[in-house]
Amino acid sequence: MNTERQPDAVDAILAQWRRERPDLDASPMGTIGRLTRCSALMQRRLDEAFSAFGLSIWEFDMLATLRRTGAPYCLAPTALFSTLMVTSGTMTHRMQRLEASGWVERLVNPEDARSKLVKLTPAGLELIDRAVEAHVQNEHRILAPLNPTDLTALEMSLARLLAVLEPGGE
Do 80 and 62 touch, CB atoms closer than 8 A? Predict the structure, then answer.
């Protein structure tokens, strides 16, 4: 297996730290810097795919969250904002924007008349179904240069890191 790779922007940063602070083990900056840089570069590619549907990342996330819950594609706002890890104030603003776009509607909760439910409209369902297909195709394109062995190893390593970073992790 060929372990040779081209130098990247993070290598230049690490070289500068080795030159300026040879006493400092800056090696974690390599891993974290590459994760951060990959995330930013991937986000650009994801944003391009979402913009083809007139969506931002947060709009896609909200619509996709409702879609993957299954019919009737409806959640209480508290369940929606806890899934998306945003504040209730942020969620209210976002729901208003999605509602104004005609992609969601707010309904009275039959179990609690004091609260509302957020539901995909038929237009929202049609939009997210098209957008998620394009999103998955885009993700396949992004990961295509990695061979299956490297992709599996990356997936396992990221899953272990995520388990440590998530609340309740090590």
Answer: yes
Strands of the 74-75 sheet, one edge to the other: 74-75, 112-120, 104-109
Do the Cβ atoms of 124 and 62 come closer than 8 Å? no
Which domains, ranges and CATH numbers included, belong to the chain?
42-139 (1.10.10.10)
Which H helix or E strand runs over 108? strand 104-109
Read off the tokens for 170: 């090590």
- Give dist(CA 96, CA 107) in Å, integer: 13
- What predicted TM-score, i.e. pTM, was given to this entire model? 0.82
pLDDT tens figures, 108-137: 888 877 788 999 999 999 999 999 999 999
3-state SS of the chain: helix, strand, coil percent to 5?
Answer: 65, 10, 25
Q: What tens digit of pLDDT does each residue of 23-57 get?
A: 999 999 999 999 999 999 999 999 999 999 999 99
Closest CA to 124 of 103, 100, 152: 103
DSSP bridge pairs for 126: none
